[in-house]
Write a structure and sequence with these properties.
Structural class of chain B: alpha/beta
Strand order of the largest sheet of chain A: 3-4-2-5-6-7
Number of strands of chain B: 10
Strand content of chain A: 5-15%
CATH class of the largest domain in chain A: Alpha Beta
Shape of chain B: globular
CATH architecture of the largest domain in chain A: 3-Layer(aba) Sandwich
Order of helices and strands of chain B: EHEHEEHEHEHHEEEEHH
Organism (chain A): Meleagris gallopavo
Oligomer: heterodimer
Structural class of chain A: alpha/beta
Order of helices and strands of chain A: EHEHEEHEHEHHEEEEHHHH
Shape of chain A: elongated
Largest sheet of chain B: 6 strands, mixed
Number of strands of chain A: 10
CATH superfamily of chain B: P-loop containing nucleotide triphosphate hydrolases
Number of helices of chain A: 10
CATH class of chain B: Alpha Beta
CATH architecture of chain B: 3-Layer(aba) Sandwich
CATH topology of the largest domain in chain A: Rossmann fold
CATH topology of chain B: Rossmann fold
Strand content of chain B: 15-25%
Keywords (chain A): Coiled coil, GTP-binding, Nucleotide-binding
Helix content of chain A: 40-55%
Distance between the termini of chain A: 124 Å
Radius of gyration of chain B: 24 Å
Family (chain A): Belongs to the TRAFAC class TrmE-Era-EngA-EngB-Septin-like GTPase superfamily. Septin GTPase family.
Largest sheet of chain A: 6 strands, mixed
Largest interface: A-B, 108 and 106 residues
Number of domains of chain B: 1
Helix content of chain B: 25-40%
GO molecular function, one term (chain A): GTP binding
CATH superfamily of the largest domain in chain A: P-loop containing nucleotide triphosphate hydrolases
Radius of gyration of chain A: 51 Å
Protein name (chain A): Septin
Number of helices of chain B: 8
Number of domains of chain A: 2
Chain lengths: 437, 335
């Protein structure tokens, strides 16, 4: 890590003639941090039953409550839990994120995607906060993942394809520390071989795992040694066994006791040393200055921001925002126009349908009217016919009555004839009436 | 059902857990110290006051070295500049392994003209320029690992020891500047005032500052917790510090001390009974240096940034009645 402010670049060095007192500066800074507390976020990836929860419990010497999970999850999920640990005057806000159901599915193609999405989501949240106009970034609770503990199954052979794929997709986003879980199932010689094989595989696949920093004299020696011990073979345990006159964390087998904190038995102590005591600060810094910056750069470029516009002049902040805003408003207007057009279209269509229906009804109505008219005419005719009949009958009736009221001088023969004529006339009338109805 | 891409809020806090044994978390403090010592610190201080009030001497006494060249060297003609000019000098000083890049900005010509209207403008412009520079670096896509910090962390304002009240120039200046930078007022050349006169002068100044709602460092609004408040209250009672500057050593009671030798005695700069220089030094360097930087970064710089980014946020006269939409990168989400 290049000494970020090489302070002597071209500046005069002054010698002090007395004690000024700014050597308390690191202490002032530390005091501030103590007040604020530290945030540390660990992501634990490993198959179900590989010992993730036990490892975390052992690392932090406490018991986080979790339940044993099943093997039947349909997809990989992430479970995040937040704890606050106190040790002397340091407050550590620890977040442990574990995978649930990793490696359990029959089809593992999408196994690593939820993990990548989660890490990106944390970066995104931080970026959004940073881009806000009114922001409160100094008391923002940092949820970005600082370290990823990847637990490899102790097969003794080589990395699984799933491991390769997952680590390849994560190595540019997070600091990966590969571990061999449940290492008490491998013998010492097998372990050395296994570790060598793993390292060669990682290197040949171009996977960048986290290297402990070796540029600071204080820790460079121990870090270099530790770098050679990667991946750490760890055993975790929350049970204590009495050995000699001490209670130690260990796993008891019929053939012996595996002590977690014994360096001859496993690398647990090395992991704890490296992770917490020596390099926690560096992990946090690498996450912020390397992984987060990379994410930010890609994301801003994706969003269309540029440092230098096509004319090769540095783009000013205002212009960038203005251009973006203008583009956005244009887009907004275009979409509004589009929606409006669609709406108008739909209205037109509906109107056409309704109009057609209206026309049909109109035609039907007219047809009915026509029929009604016809019926009316027919009835008119019939009525007229009937009226004529009635008139005729009345006339005949009048005639008959007239005949009856004439004086009776007519001869009997004519009387008979009269009677016959009347009979005949009445008969005809009757016939006519009954026929005319 | 938890979703794999994260919840917008953090998962519920599972409470404080007891540790069954030593874990080693406190080692992170040591790591932090080592890291900061390697990186070094930056501190930018500005001194403002009329010429002849002892600004350069004061800075030299504070940092126990020839940081500024005094304007009144014998054999050098003193020229009063026609306008306020700002001169910055940067040095690297080291003490017990801690490296500090110190920048002192001097303002010759301030308050020296006949018409001093707007003599604070070049100063305000300079301070804002530093904020602008930092802002530009911060919003680049490919940013530097460590953004060079040239923002003014503290502005020491020298009040002439009249013994009466604050002059209109003092009030105007402090009022404008306390909004954008941490202002630490001091009574210069305090050896012309007796202790009682000093006390009275201070009371009057404090009343004046309160009457004009000028909040000088340490500002009351930024006290974080009751301990801080207690500590800062004690400091606030003594503001402004009555200081005397000296860069020559004399012999007093067998010891070599920094002081001013006069016919009637030697004024020891570092003697709390003589002047309040030790308090100023403690405030600026030994206890509140980091706090000065933090307030500059978290408060003053942020409000500059808000102002600046809002400058281009004029609502566009569009068909959506000037309502700002939600921009993709969320920077309007707070409008």
């Amino acid at each position: 890590m290049a000494g970020a402010g090489q302070p002597n670049d071209g500046l005069r060095s002054l010698s002090l003639s007395g004690h000024v007192g700014f050597d308390t500066l690191p202490d002032q800074l530390v005091n501030k941090s103590i007040k604020q507390g530290f945030c540390f976020n660990i992501l634990c990836i490993g198959e179900t039953g590989s010992g993730k929860s036990t490892l975390i419990n052992s690392l932090f010497n406490t018991s986080f409550d979790d339940s044993v999970s099943t093997h039947f999850h349909p997809n990989v999920r992430l479970k995040a839990q937040r704890y606050e640990l106190h040790e002397s005057n340091v407050r550590l806000k620890l977040t442990v994120v574990s995978t649930v159901g990793f490696g359990d599915q029959i089809n593992k193609e999408d196994s690593y995607q939820p993990i990548v999405d989660y890490i990106d989501a944390q970066f995104e949240a931080y970026l959004q906060e940073e881009l806000k106009i009114k922001r409160s970034i100094f008391n923002y609770h940092d949820t970005r993942i600082h370290v990823c503990l990847y637990i490899i199954s102790p097969t003794g052979h080589s990395l699984k394809t799933l491991d390769l794929l997952t680590m390849k997709s994560l190595d540019s986003k997070v600091n990966i520390i590969p571990l061999i879980g449940k290492a008490d199932s491998i013998s010492k010689t097998e372990l050395q071989q296994f570790k060598r094989k793993l390292i060669t595989e990682l290197v040949s696949n171009g996977i960048q795992i986290y290297q402990f920093p070796t540029d600071d004299e204080v820790v460079s020696q121990i870090n270099t040694i530790m770098n050679g011990h990667l991946p750490f073979a760890v055993v975790g345990s929350t049970e204590v066994v009495k050995i000699g006159n001490k209670m130690v964390k260990a796993r008891q087998y019929p053939w012996g006791i595996v002590q977690v904190e014994n360096e001859n038995h496993c690398d647990f102590v090395k992991l704890r040393e490296m992770l917490i005591c020596t390099n926690m600060e560096d992990l946090i810094e690498q996450t912020h200055t390397r992984h987060y910056e990379l994410y930010r750069r890609c994301r801003l470029q994706e969003m269309g921001f540029r440092d230098i516009d096509p004319e090769n002049k540095p783009v000013s902040l205002q212009e960038a925002y203005e251009a973006k805003r203008r583009k956005f408003y244009l887009e907004l207007q275009r979409r509004e126009e589009e929606t409006r057009q669609k709406f108008v279209q739909r209205v037109k269509e509906k109107e056409a349908v309704l109009k057609e229906a209206e026309q049909r009804i109109q035609a039907k109505f007219e047809h009915l009217m026509l029929m009604h008219q016809e019926e009316k005419l027919k009835l008119e005719k019939k009525r007229k016919a009937l009226e004529e009949e009635i008139a005729l009958f009345n006339m005949k009736k009048a005639n008959a009555e007239l005949l009856q009221t004439q004086p009776m001088v007519s001869t009997p023969i004519s009387l008979k004839r009269e009677k016959d004529r009347k009979k005949y006339f009445l008969y005809n009338l009757h016939k006519g009436l009954t026929a005319g109805v | 059902m938890e979703s794999a891409a994260v919840p917008q809020e953090l998962p519920p806090d599972c409470g404080v857990h007891e540790l069954f044994g030593y874990v080693g978390i406190e080692a992170v403090l040591e790591q932090m110290k080592v890291k900061t010592m390697k990186m070094g610190f930056e501190f930018n201080i500005m001194v403002v006051g009329q010429s002849g009030l002892g600004k350069s001497t004061m800075v030299n006494t504070l940092f126990k070295s020839k940081v500024s060249r005094k304007a009144s060297q014998p054999g050098q003609e003193e020229r009063i500049p026609k306008t306020v000019q700002l001169q910055s000098v940067t040095h690297v000083i080291e003490e017990k392994g801690v490296k500090m890049k110190l920048t002192v900005t001097d303002t010759p010509g301030f308050g020296d003209q006949i018409n001093n209207e707007n003599c604070w403008d070049p100063i305000i412009k300079y301070i804002n320029e530093q904020y602008e520079r930092y802002l530009r670096e911060e919003i680049l896509i490919t940013r530097k690992r460590k953004i060079p910090d040239s923002r003014v962390h503290g502005c020491v304002y020298f009040i002439p020891p009249t013994g009466h009240w604050l002059r209109p120039l003092d009030l105007e200046f402090m009022r404008r500047l306390s909004k954008i930078v941490n202002v630490v007022p001091v009574i210069a050349k305090a050896d012309t005032l007796t202790l009682e006169e000093r006390e009275e002068f201070k009371q009057r100044i404090q009343r004046d500052l309160k009457a004009h709602a000028i909040s000088v460092y340490p500002q009351e609004d930024f006290d974080e917790d009751p301990d801080d408040r207690l500590l800062n209250d004690r400091i606030r009672e003594k503001i402004p510090f009555a200081v005397v500057g000296a860069d020559q050593e004399h012999q007093v009671n067998g010891k070599r001390v920094l002081g001013r030798k006069t016919k009637w005695g030697i004024i020891e700069v570092e003697n709390p009974a003589h002047c309040e220089f030790p308090m100023l030094r403690d405030l600026l360097i030994r206890s509140h240096l980091q706090d000065l930087k933090d307030i500059t970064h978290n408060v003053h710089y942020e409000s500059y940034r808000v102002r600046r980014l809002n400058e281009s946020n004029r609502p566009a006269p569009s068909s959506n009645n000037g309502l700002p939409g939600r921009d993709e990168d969320g920077d309007e989400s707070n409008l």
